[in-house]
Amino acid sequence: MMGLGMPELIIILVIILIIFGAGKLPEIGAGLGKGIKNFKKATKETKIEDKEDEPEKIEKD
Fold first, then answer.
1. How many CA atoms lie within 13 A of 60 on its CB side?
2. What is the pLDDT at residue 11?
3. Of residues 25, 27, 31, the one with CA closest to residue 13
4. What pLDDT digit, counting tens, does each position of 22-58 carry?
5. Alpha-carbon distance 35 to 33, whole Å?
């Protein structure tokens, strides 16, 4: 089974806290959030552009 439990997450967070320090964590979180937001926006824009590139369907009588 591959998954992260609570003890593993706590260990990872402690290591991150030691490496970057408490003052840097809000900046890292904000940057990560902006990156995710931009990624979601880009994927939505791609879907919209794909629909515009489709040729119009012509119905035959």
1. 0
2. 93
3. 25
4. 888 889 889 999 999 999 998 887 666 555 556 666 7
5. 5
Which amino acid does the sequence have at 36?
A: I
CA distance 33 to 39: 10
Going from the C-alpha of 23 to that of each of 10, 15, 38, the distances in angstroms are: 18, 15, 24
Q: How confident is the model at residue 51, as a pLDDT?
A: 58
| Alpha-carbon gap, residue 17 to 23, rounded angstroms | 9
pTM of the model: 0.51
User: Nearest 5°: CA angle at 13, between 8 and 15?
Assistant: 95
| Distant-in-sequence, close-in-space partners of 4: CB < 8 Å, separation ≥ 6 | 12
